């Protein structure tokens, strides 16, 4: 069973605006838990409007993608073409498709192979133990950036603001997928 922690409530206007656009399962999470945190706070539900412009500016499919979740490492999970779940992995400069639909994505979150392949759960646990829990607008970022010769070591992680981290990486590598 997926671990979900209640987050900040979602305004009714936002729910109404996305009810026919986003998957029913995500809308149900929003209704019951607001901007919930999932998987021990590794994933955070986000207001798509807070990240939509940033996604358009930094991801080649940003104009057909809706940001729905952010990982503890500043990756944006997207809803694309009305069904697919993808992830823009800014720190690595690439993107992956995670599932054909949101229901399958949620099911995959219970699969150890899937988690190991796409997420950094052990590093996250270590980072939380070392640096503490993240705020809604924070992620763990590598300093120096991986693209500037940094390495994926725990001692190189710092708490950073998600948007600023993504913007900085994008200035370095350009639009993801181009």
TrEMBL record:
Residues 99-172 form the T6SS immunity protein Tdi1 C-terminal domain. InterPro entries: GAD-rel, T6SS_Tdi1_C. Residues 6-82 form the GAD-related domain. It holds the Pfam family GAD-like. This is GAD-like protein. It comes from Roseburia intestinalis L1-82.
